[in-house]
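Example record

One chain of 128 residues, shown exactly as stored in the release files.
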Amino acid sequence: MEEVILRAKVILSALFKFDETLFEKKTRKQNVIEGRSFLIYFLREDFGMTLQGILKYIPAITNHATIMHHLRKMDGLLKYEKETKNKYDKFLLRMLDNEKYVIETEIAKKVNERNQINNELTKLKKLL
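Predicted structure tokens for this chain:
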């Protein structure tokens, strides 16, 4: 499951043109907020994840109300904005594309490794 979520983060960060680590940090950049909305909607509606589970995988989101806001917003956008619907469909196709799966899975693994290394570095710096 974590591999699928990492892969979704990699795809969305490429689609919205931002670094995938911004899923972890608070920011008000519009492209990051849109990417988070897509990820939240995907995790809840297409992946069936609970609100508590979503909070676990998107540390920048701190409460259930924010998740519910993103879900309602995406419902409306997907119903009435063709551009958003097309972008979401493109994201889903990329998630299902077997050719790119291997590359994106490898990227997701490397991102995970980088995050672990960054955590270790932070711990070591605190010891200094």
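Notes: The domain at 2-127 is CATH 1.10.1750.10 (Chromosomal Replication Initiator Protein Dnaa; Chain: A;).
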